[in-house]
Each structure stands twice: as structure tokens, then as C-alpha cells.
Amino acid sequence: MGKSKTKNQKKSRANAIHLAQEDFGTVPHSFVFHRGQIGKNVSQLIVDMRRVMEPYTAESLKVRKKNVLKDFAAVAGPLGVTHFLIFTKTENSVNLRLARLPRGPTLHFKVSQYSLIKDVVSSLKRHRMHDQQFTHHPLLVLNNFGMPGMHVKLMATMFQNMFPSINVHKVSLNAIKRCVMINYNPETQLIDFRHYSLKVVPVGMSKGIKKLLQEKFPNMSKFEDISELLMKGANLSESEAELDGDHNTTELPQVYAGRGNMKAQQSAVRLIEIGPRMTLQLIKIDEGMCEGNVLYHAIIEKTEAEIQEMLARKQKKLKLKAERKLNQERNVAVKKEQRDENKKRSLEGIKKKLPPKAGEEGDSDAEDPGKEEDQAAADHSEDDEVEYYRQAVGQEPDEDMFPASKRKKGPGKSPHPFKKRKHSSERGGRMDRGPSRDRTPGKRGDRPGMKDRKFGVKKERTMGPKFKVQKGKPRPGFKRKPQSNAKPNASRGFKQKRGKGRQ
Hints:
Shape: elongated
Structural class: alpha+beta
């Protein structure tokens, strides 16, 4: 079991993590993505550019069709993203927009030519590219960006801010594994973008000794003495016999990774291209984030009067937009007030329709003035029926004859009486109902056989005297239709054939 860390070790580790997070937050970060429809080659170019911008870029950024530029800008703030590299494709060319967050400027480039990493690597005899090279940011080298012109200085500043700055007094040489070189041609106004891998080898010794230091033993069958290998350097291929001179030889201030690379010794720096490769042409520069005034345009040139007129037209549009927004806010406020007023009136109407509670004071007539009139009309109709029965029959009606006239209807009760239902437990299933109340003949509701009727039992109804039906004679009350076309000898239910009958 390993030893537990001491308090000082934990404190130093936490301090190192804190410093690393601060350094990570101060360096520039980037998003590389596309807008619109692009082909397979441009998609691969985007992947290669993410490889160049590592490790301070979104390596696995997912882009959907419904995403807009505002979505990326909203996410960029919390993540500390400072630059956007946006690729688009038209029918004629491939374009690149290089934008600085959050307020611009934006540089628009036309990609005249480009080559992918796989194309560059396949053209080399011996390529040198491994994953450890991409753990540190590349070294930026700008060439010919000291030319006069506002757009040239702006391009140089933009390219410099895309990559982290290097402190030459504190930098470690082993952290520099790659190099990005950007060259500006003032005659053609084209920009060459190249990506290289760095290799440092010692100089001042024969090629045979270099080969031995690299643990590569040549074929010495043709040599008579070992000194021939050290002095002549035979059996070396043309690719191994690279010529180093003053243009790539320097004295190392630190010990560099590799056999023979010692401090204060002469070493040669070699560049091996790993791609991608692009040729760019600056088209225009916008003041804002993919919008705003045009600071520079390589194709269209405008006079000062045209620029002022364009600015005045833009200010007018902005003023109209502000007025429309103000009117819209005012209309929204008016509609909200109307909605609240309608809601208040609706609540007041609902309160008036509700019946008063027991503890509330108020007159029921004021709540519903037509209720008393309806009740009086119903009582008057019942009195008319009772009076009509007296005149027609000549005697007083029973109490059960007109039950509605007996009781007075209270406020809020239904004019029709409800019938009390009995549950099955009270009835006991199909049990006999109690004996019906005695009713005198002539009363409403009396029917023959209803006195002894049981619930659920079907009584046979008397249909009067039975008639005895004789054979061949119809029942009384039914008439048989005469069959005019029937023949006496024809059997019942069958049609007789035409022609001679049976004899």
C-alpha cells in the first residue's frame, strides 16, 4: 500500500492545479465549425484545422442544422472562447470567416487553394507526426506583415491573438513541437498558411556517428575498418544525407529531447510539413461580429460621400427600428391593461351569479329578481288544475292527486320532486314490494292488475275470451287474402309448370 501524501504535497499540488487553471483561462480558445451545406472535403478541412488549433479548441464540436450563430456566441462566453473560424461553401469558392469575440472585428477570406493532411502526408517519403506533438500549442511565425496598410496590421494582430503568447525567458523548448507559418505576399495579396513539425538534430559530427546515436547500425560488410564508417559516412541514403547550413543551425540554450542535443551545442532545426495547407485572399473586414460597418473591401471602393450617405441610411433604419420597438411595447402594455380589466369584470359577474353564503348579508331578491315570479306562476298553475278537477268531477280531490300544490317550493329547489331510490340491500334482491296504497276506482294511476304486481315478475295480461280456431278457417279479426292465380290442383308452396297438368 502506497504512502499517503503529506500536507505540503497536497498544498503544492492544489497550488499547481490552480495556476494551471488560471493559465488555461488566460489563453485564447477557438471554435472551428461550418455554416450551410458543405462537401466531404471541406468537412475534412475543418477537422484538420481543429487539429492545428489543438489543444485550445473544441475538438468534438457538434453542429446541427437548426443551430444559428447566436447559439455559438451564447455558449462561447462561459467557455472562454475568443475566436471563431467559420467555413462556408458556395458554387464558386470556399470561404473562411475569422471572427473575434464578442465585438469583432471579422475578417472574410476566400480559400483559393487548400490541401488536406492526408494529401500532404501521402506526398512525403518519410513523415513525422505523433500525438505528443498536439499536447502543446504551435509556435506562430509571421512573415512580410510589416507592410503599410491598415488591413495588413489588422490581419497580423488577429493571427497573433489566435495563438497563446510565448515568454522567451520562461518557455521550455521541449514544449515546442509544431510550427504554424503564415506568409503574406504584397504583390499578389495572397496569404500562405503552412503547418510544420519541428525536429532538432545535432551538427558537427559525421553522419555515421549520428546514425549510431540513433541506434541505427548500417551495413559494414564493405568496410575494412570502423574508421571508414566514422570518416566517410558511406551507405547513407539521399534522404538521410540532408544538408544543414547556417540557415537552420543554432545553439541550444536548453537540453532538447533527442540523442546528442546538448545545451550550448550546435543543432539544426528541421521542418517537416504535416498539413493542412491553404492559400487565402482577404476580401473584406467587418467592424462587428459578422456585422457592422465595412472597414476594408478588396474589390469595392467607395468615396467619402458614398460612405456618409450609407451611414446616414443606416442610422435612419436604426431609428425606425427603435420607434417600432417602442410602439410595440406600448401596444403590449395597453393589451395587458385591457386583459386585466376584462378579467376583473368577469370575476364580478361570477360573484353575482353565485348563491349567497349563510353568513353573508344580502337580499336574495336582489341576487335573482325573477326567482319569486317563477315560483308564483308555478303555484298558480297548480291551483288552476285543482279548480278544474272540482268543476269536472264535483268533489274534492285527494291529497295525493296534486302533491305539488300541497307543499311550497323553497328557494333554490327543483320544481320536480326527486324519487327516493332504495338500495339492493334494503330491497333484499328481487323481493316483493310492500302492498300498494289503497286507491279508489277512478283515481289517477289505477290500472287493473297493478295491486298484486310483484317487482321482477311478469304477469299475464288477459286478452279477453279465447276463440276456438277451426281447421281451414281463419281466426276472428283476420282475413285471408284470396289467391286468384292459384289452381285447384296445384300443391301448396310450389309453382306449377306451364302446359298440361296432372290427370
